[in-house]
Amino acid sequence: MENVDIHRLHFAFTIIYHYIFPQLSMGLTLLILILKTMGLRGDRAGSDGARFWCRILGLTFVMGVITGIPMEFQFGTNWSRFSEAAGGVIGQTLAMEGIFAFFLESTFLYLLLFQEKRLGVRIHWFVSLLVFLGTWLSGYFIVCTNAWMQHPVGHTISETGKIELESVWALLTNAWAIPQYLHTMVGTTITGSFVMASIGSFYVLRNKHLVVAKRFLSLSVIVACVASVLAAFPTGDMQAKLVHNHQPETFAAMEGHFHTSNGAPLVLMGQPNMETLHLDNPIELPNMLSVLTHLRWDSEVKGLTSYPQDRWPTNVPALYYAYHIMAGVGSIFIAVSLLGIISMLQGKLYSRRWLLWTYMLLLPFPFIANTAGWATAELGRQPWIIYNVMRTVDGHSMHVSGGNALFSLLGFAGLYVVLSVLFFFIAVRIITDGPDGESSLSDVSAAPKDAPSQAQGAIL
User: Fold this and answer.
1) In this structure, is residue 427 part of a structural domain?
2) How far apart are CA 63 and CA 70, in angstroms?
3) Which of 139, 210, 379, 435 gives 52 a disulfide partner, CB atoms 3.0 to 4.6 angstroms apart?
């Protein structure tokens, strides 16, 4: 394994583990804001639900901070040549994320978690709004950084090879950034809503904390449905069209489209064969790839072999599988969410145990889908660290050996195992204790299993 591959593996491991927590935090802040809004309108169960999920948010935020700090240092330790060349650009958005967004988020998170009684209902609701804005603003600055690496704009390259920023506005309004940001935040909303639906289903199946559990279960089912549909269209469609227009080699590889053709099919399943350059055992929808890309049944879609091989993504099978895992799991989310909405309208959401079990067992899948989505973006950009500007092999640190990087990677892995155990233990304690408040202690007679008028009235 080359040194650059070890550095890539090191960064991939730390960022994949780190992103488990921000995606949940960003999703939960929106749902907590909605629950707080319900509480502001006099819904006691909404207030109790928000208070319960604030405890999960606090734990998740701490884990995100702990696992996020090492990544900042890795720019210097593992990717010093990239940082030296592009630091004047990416440093802008990373600094904005830390100064404007992270401080806003962390400062008001303290007030959200510990000062509810002192602040009062209205001010505490406003604090939840600021926490939500801080987390989502933080996400935007991070996405802008990645979007510039995918589609670099607003810069010049000096005679010494340094990349200098010409326009901060161009950086922040990058045509790649807006669709990528919307798709990313919809993904975090899917994570937050399915985690909330999973825990709500757990309480309903155990017949505990029914009033509060049904309140946030019904909310999360609605939000999960809306977010799952938006992830496919329009945000996913917008993102795919950007890739098709600006990274055509990536688009062909992630679709498994090796040879240029008119009326290209959309591949649902299949295994890319890099020796014969075709898909084994494909299951396809005829002409649909042409329709999705050009809105014409017989339009031409260029295949991977139409481009020079030195521009192909470094690992075509990994990119293909990552993309199809994301799309496949996303399709499952849409189907389950629609079943949830139908069951809610029929007044049977809380009595269909198979559906509650489905929501509960789906808990890890939003994390899988979001990880696969980011893997698609990063694998697709290779072999470029900055697309068409700087290759990945030219960006890693020359004075940090592969052995040193591998040793520190093993150390990180051991540390993250310990952190995972601590997170799991504390999260289980919080979930076992359940929501606080009188409404959470109400018995079944106070909240029938199928009472759509009560459970949905405050939401629909």
Assistant:
1) yes
2) 12
3) 435
pLDDT of residue 437: 56
Average pLDDT over residues 40-50: 93
CB–CB of 191/23 below 8 Å? yes
Considering the entire predicted model, what is its pTM? 0.92
Which residues form the domain of 56? Answer: 3-226+375-457
Position 77 scores a pLDDT of 87
- Are 408 and 74 spatial neighbours (Cβ–Cβ below 8 Å)? no
What span, in angstroms and rounded, lies between the C-alpha atoms of 202 and 361?
10
Residue 348 CA, chain-centre distance (Å), reads 30
> What does the pLDDT look like over 186-236, one tens digit per residue?
999 999 999 999 999 999 999 999 999 999 999 999 999 999 999 999 999
Instruction: Report helix angle 80-96 to 121-150, nearest 10.
Output: 150
Distances 90 to 94, 146, 171, 175, 246 between C-alpha atoms, Å: 6, 9, 9, 16, 20
Alpha-helical segments (H) within 233-313: 235-246, 248-255, 288-294
CA distances from 220 to 32, 243, 307, 341, 433 (A): 11, 31, 44, 10, 20
In a domain, 106, yes or no: yes
Percent of the chain at pLDDT above 90?
A: 82
Within-domain flag for 211: yes
Asked if the structure places residue 322 within a domain, the reply is: no
Among candidates 197, 283, 214, 112, which has minimal Cα distance to 449?
Answer: 214
How many independent structural domains does the chain possess? Answer: 1
